[in-house]
Amino acid sequence: MFKEFSQYNTYIMLEKTLFSFFYILLVINLVVAQAPSTESIFNKYQASSNAHFQSPYYLLEVNKLTPKLITNSIALKANRKFSDDLFIVSASSIKGINNNYIKKLNAVTNNWKLSAAAEISLVKDVDAVTPLHFQIWCTKMETAERLLALHKNLKNNFFILREQNIISVFCTVRQMQDVFLNEEEVVSIDLITAKPTEELGIPGFDLTANKINMVHSQYPAINGQGKQVSIKEDYYDTTDIDLKGRYAASPLASDNITNHANFMATIIAGAGNSIYYARGAADHAHLSSSSFKLVLPDADASYLNNNITVQNHSYGTDLENNYGVSAMAFDKNAHNNEGLLHVFSSGNSGNKTSTTGNYTGIEGYANLTGNFKMAKNILVVGAVDSFGNVVPLSSKGPAYDGRIKPELVAFQKNGTSEAAALVSGTALLLQQYYTNLHPQNELPSALAKAILINSADDISTPGPDFKTGYGNLNAVKAMDLIRDNHIFSGEIRQDSTQIFSILIPANIALLKVTLAWNDTAASPMANKALVNDVDLEVALPANTQSWQPWVLNSFANIDSLNSPAVRKKDSLNNVEQVTIENPIPGNYQLKIKGYNLPAGNQKYHLVYSLDSANKFAWQAPDSTTLLQAGTHAILRWQNSFNQSGRIEYSVAPNQWQLIADNADLKKSYFYWDVPDTISQVLLRMKIGNDYFYSDTCTITTLLKPTTGFICGDSILIYWNKLKSISRYQIYQLGDKFMEPLLIVSDTIAVISKNILKDKYLAVAPVLNNGITAFKSYAFNYTMQGAACFISSFYANKKDATAQLNLLLGTLTNIVAISFEKQSVTGYITINTPLIGNQLNYTYTYGLLQPGINNFRAKIVLANGLVIYSKLEAVYYAAPGKYVLLPVPVQRNNNITLISSIPDGESITLMDVLGKIVLTQKIVATQEFIKTAALQSGQYFYRINKKGMVVASGKLIIL
């Protein structure tokens, strides 16, 4: 019962009388007609006027002129917010408010708790017996525990996220209605309409497209060491050598192992053990796993106890344009764990059209896959190709309330999964570097977002847009921002302003400033996710000029969504950005204002960067880049010159050769036909009279090693010879990474087994200057089909001959080869081939005897050791003849019947009395006759063909 709501007038009335009084009062004072949306909400959720109101919740509309502090107080305590002046509230949350501020107040049914999908299910599927997946938010965790205790039949389908008062349950719609809907402490019920699925794309990634390669070369000590990432989806293969020694077992991991999870783990933190391009962004980071069966954050303790600072989410569900329980849960989790960054793929549904929410029917927009991607304290990543063009299937924003989504894009030609993984790996590098410079501090996730967004390369439409967000990931610029300490952090109060001054020197092409904060989570189904509204402004006091952030038009119209950003106040996003092209030198002020902070003081992070004019820098190749001889390579650079350039290369000191004249510097890339050589190479760009040199990198050809033999104490491996290369480095897999093992001066190596730690080996050429080029594919020497010198020996019957085939693992130390046939007196040599350069030797033997013919190969080594192959048998019978072996035969052993080409024959066995004891058709040249059912003794056989006896004889079973 609603008992009291005014601090000026205290009275107690019956609920119905009180409600009627205020309803009449509001009608009398109504000046402006209700907007259809407001009226429709009242009509949809209000309880019957003659009902006995048992629900403690009300639909409240406040007057437009209600003071901001009062509105903020109501909004903060509201269980659902429909607009800035329309709320679902409890009696206690509006207790003491002057009735002059209340425009309309109605008791409500409990259906306001339902998301749109849950509401539809209540209408359509209330009698269905199939369990559905509901996520339920309670005001008290005790409610979940009590409901679980009362409804034990749901126990196996019940999951509780205690920090956030969330129940995840699989039950029927009727059970949802009967068990949860009318519970007072249950305040939001969301239906999960689809299982999460991986956002698949073609595997493969290019670290140069987002300048991660430059971090590896310019910041070699920053590799993810000491950081741990969680991959939320199915499990990756922990036997993968690129993940060796760096994964942590987790009780949260899925039982299902997928290639997709392996790709994500490799892109984020692959060691590059298998091959150079399997090196991830943070190749020393450790990995954990968490199943995505329930799309909710893990428990706070799980992140904390396992030192997880980044969680990658490369999956999606349906297009869900609302702020559901999942979105709220991730916002709360990020807000409560300042050092934890959640990175989501935007989805691969860029060609789909939303059928729910504000952007229903607008093709190509608002197609993010899952309401959890509507969270504001996470980072959502779309995909572009290696030249910054948006991949058509990459899901676009805006978020359900018009916020900018995705915030970033990154390279992946065919899917957003890998793009998100690249950002997750880069975030680990930023976290490690920040902590190295600030040993007592972890990098806050809101600051990580600000850094990544501010350092991104603006692509597509100038300024932010709903396809590429704030731009394309630029990892090295993000690292440089931390290095230069262009960072301010603070905490702002309501209606206060904080000012930071920066000096802008001459010759700056672009000033970019980004503000970000982790906002308090909104209530599920809120019309707008932003709670605390902080404002950014950049000013130049010298001329009183000021700049507001870029804001997009989020009106639900295709032309509006396509329109470029304009400078104005932003009241939607918890990221704001100001850019100024060619700023005049001077002292600038970065102003932070606490405009509307209903949740109290707000922590924030502010970063800025300065791009110099007339600057050129190579981005690929660098010292970590492999250029494969005789192939195409992409040269990349960062440039602010407005002219063309001349590209040259040198593989010998001061001997420059032309690649391209008048190269278009604005394109920032060029295809180069790499010369067919093995050498170090240097590139340079000539702009005007100035030269800009690249790092020295390597042109090479990947070797193809294989196993020659595996003997008791040693193995032999060999590989193709490269011109002008006289030494080779052999590597073996260590505890985590490939480690140098031996340097040899040949294309063959015999390796003692007692120095081997692992079965995986690789080989790299050593250049004449002593630099080791890139390693070959790592190979498991035990899986190459090699034995001790003899890889294989087999014999096949062809007509009346035996075809013998010997494959050697190596010719090293072999002085003689021969083929032998078994005879009654031992083995006789039937052929001695000359030893050539080949490893394969064959011989055709034409003197087969009826029955079994046994053959073997013989190898003689230089030290006199003789090695024999296993015996190979060839069964032979002349045309029209039949051979039975062995005679006599031991009981329970099979008799082998050998014939030439079966033609409808059958064999009959008779005992000494003439009784038939077995009849069997002959269908193969080697037919096996079982004797287990026969007694020991003498038997007679007849072979019949088309009614005639073609062979006969006797046999003895012992």
Instruction: State the secondary-structure class.
Output: alpha+beta
- Round the mean pLDDT to the nearest integer and report it: 90
* End-to-end separation: 100 Å
Shape: flat
The CATH architecture of the largest domain: 3-Layer(aba) Sandwich
How do the strands line up in the largest sheet?
11-10-12-14-15-16
Number of helices: 14
Question: What is the percentage of strand-forming residues?
Answer: 35-45%
State the domain count. Answer: 7
Instruction: Give the CATH topology of the largest domain.
Output: Rossmann fold
* Helix content class: 10-25%
The CATH class name of the largest domain reads Alpha Beta
Major β-sheet, in short?
6 strands, parallel
Q: How many DSSP E strands?
A: 57
* CATH-defined superfamily of the largest domain: Peptidase S8/S53 domain
Low-confidence stretches: 1-36
Using the CA coordinates, give the radius of gyration: 38 Å
Description:
Helix content is 15%, strand content 35%. With 958 residues, the protein is α+β, with helices and mostly antiparallel strands. The chain has 7 domains: 15-113, no CATH class; 116-193, Peptidase S8 propeptide/proteinase inhibitor I9 (Alpha-Beta Plaits, 2-Layer Sandwich), CATH 3.30.70.80; 198-610, 3-Layer(aba) Sandwich (Rossmann fold); 617-699, Immunoglobulin-like; 702-783, Immunoglobulins (Immunoglobulin-like), CATH 2.60.40; 790-876, Immunoglobulin-like, CATH 2.60.40; 883-957, Immunoglobulins (Immunoglobulin-like, Sandwich). The strands form 15 sheets. Strands 11-10-12-14-15-16 form a 6-stranded parallel sheet. Strands 28, 30, 31, 33, 34 and 35 form a 6-stranded mixed sheet that branches. Helix 12 (445-455) crosses helix 13 (475-484). The model is unreliable at 1-36 (pLDDT under 50).
